[in-house]
Specification:
By secondary structure, the protein is α/β, with parallel strands linked by helices. It folds into two domains: 7-250 and 451-474, Aldehyde Dehydrogenase, Chain A, domain 1 (3-Layer(aba) Sandwich), CATH 3.40.605; 254-442, 3-Layer(aba) Sandwich (Aldehyde Dehydrogenase, Chain A, domain 2). The protein contains twelve helices and 20 strands.
Length: 475
């Protein structure tokens, strides 16, 4: 039931025969699923050359024609969402409903970029003297090297591909080896929709080797990366040496501010879903829970009970709300943060242990009275851990929330318009959610500030990285 894995270069699927391979496993059962072929240096070069050759024609294709093709991709994605989602659950671990929803959400992103790509407009600027015509035009930059993560293998990659292709830029995508099936399915979508060879290319292999070769290639003009801050720093430094345009969507450590006047029950219900989504392996997952003293104990008790009621298991089982962590390294990283916090005096109100004897299942965990020097208060946990502390004033809440160099997502719960305005203005984050979570829609910009990166995916800003601005002045 698990699909055959392949590279996709210049319109051709290339299987594992005669190549170095990597085994792909189900993180819930540890059973092998398939073999993933690795790209060698000549494959990387072939993909770049194919993309560069395709650029000459694709940049001149009508935006309407590009839009029509992307709409065909979106329709195929919706049609194949159940099978893509099932394979994603097998190699990623997330519940089937979440995996299918990821594909359907990505289809919305494709459709939005298909439509908005028709509206990449320039402008005429009035001249200072008669007889002069001044035009500002926006043109596709060129080949994009993109790097997408394993936590949302289909959705994150499609954001990059849809924007680049709609803007007229071919893309060479380095996918996540841990969870590859969704991207092979994506390549099949583009292939079956009739995308010209070379406009979309898919590679797997040694991350450091492939990223360096792609970024150093003079034919690559754009770099788009989603991943951790340390890796993002390395790639940004390398791209900067070669004057490449960049979009960096990096890690987060999202603060949650719950004020005394908040609807605690509604906040708990939402935050439990957000915290356990994809086992907490989400860059915008709520992680640092700062709760005002008046409702702190009530919130802590309700949140601990709700976490304890979450059904954990294999993502293909009915009713499962949270699956395993992606691999044992991630499990050990999460457990190390829990043990460090407890050693420093934190109180464990829920979870904190492995579930079962097979697979990488970690119980949803709530740590209370977490001291400021605990590692979990400074390092992105990327797992089902919530670290709870208290505050008294708005100023104290903002100080705690802004204390870290991260600045991706944030969450606020209050009934006070004054507090919401004050905190919305004061949070150092690229995205602020007040009394709900609403960041993932394609019409909205998604991105961070400070160490969480720069550039946006989604919204009209989505095209900025892939388009250059040219002035034409003529007499």
């Amino acid at each position: 039931m698990y699909p055959e894995l392949s590279l996709y270069i210049a319109g051709r699927f290339i299987d594992a025969q005669g190549r170095r391979t990597q085994a792909v496993h189900d993180p819930a059962t540890l059973q092998p699923l398939g073999l993933l072929p690795w790209a060698e240096a000549e494959d990387v070069e072939a993909a770049v050359q194919a993309a560069h050759a395709a650029f000459a024609g694709w940049r001149r294709v009508s935006p309407l024609e590009r839009s029509d093709l992307l709409r065909r991709v979106a329709a195929l994605a919706r049609e194949r969402a159940p099978e893509i989602g099932r394979a994603m659950t097998l190699d990623n671990g997330k519940p089937l409903a979440d995996a299918v929803a990821e594909v359907m959400n990505a289809a919305e992103h494709i459709e939005w970029h298909a439509e908005e790509g028709r509206r990449v407009y320039g402008r005429v600027v009035s001249a200072r003297q008669p007889g002069v015509r001044q035009l500002v035009v926006r043109e596709p930059v060129g080949v994009c090297a993109a790097f997408s993560p394993w936590n949302f293998p289909f959705g994150q990659a499609m954001k990059k591909a849809a924007a680049a292709i709609a803007a007229g830029c071919p893309i060479v995508l380095k996918g996540p080896e841990e969870s590859p099936s969704a991207l092979v399915a994506m390549a099949r979508l583009f292939h079956d929709a009739g995308l010209p060879p070379g406009v979309f290319n898919l590679l797997w292999g040694v991350p450091a080797d492939i990223s360096r070769q792609l970024i150093e290639s003079p034919l690559v003009r754009v770099v788009s990366f989603t991943g951790s801050v340390p890796v993002g720093r390395q790639l940004a430094a390398l791209a900067g040496q070669h004057m490449k345009r960049m979009t960096m969507e990096l890690g987060g450590h999202a603060p949650v501010l719950v004020f005394d006047d908040a609807d605690v029950d509604a906040a708990v219900a939402l935050l439990v879903r957000l915290k356990t989504r994809n086992a907490g392996q989400v860059c915008v997952s709520p992680t640092r829970f700062h709760v005002q003293s008046g409702v702190h104990d009530r919130f802590a008790a309700a949140f601990a009970d709700a976490l304890g009621a979450v059904k954990v298991g294999h993502g293909l089982e009915d009713g499962v709300q949270m699956g395993p962590l992606i691999h044992e390294r991630r499990f050990q990283a999460v457990q190390t943060l829990v043990e460090d916090a407890r050693t420093r005096g934190a109180e464990m109100l829920s979870g904190g242990t492995r579930i079962g004897v097979q697979g990488h299942f970690h119980a949803p965990t709530l740590l209370a009275n977490v001291p400021a020097d605990a590692r979990v208060m400074h390092e992105e946990p990327f797992g089902p851990i919530a670290a709870l502390s208290r505050f008294d004033t708005v100023e104290e809440a903002l100080q705690q929330a802004n204390a870290l160099p991260f600045g991706l997502a944030s969450y606020v719960f209050t009934r006070s318009l004054q507090t919401a305005t004050r905190v919305g203005d004061g949070l150092e984050a690229g995205m602020v959610n007040i009394n709900h979570s609403g960041m993932a829609h394609p019409e909205l910009p998604f991105g961070g500030v400070k160490d969480s990166g720069f550039g946006s995916e989604g919204g009209t800003e989505s095209f900025d990285t892939f388009l250059s601005t040219k002035l034409i002045t003529q007499i």
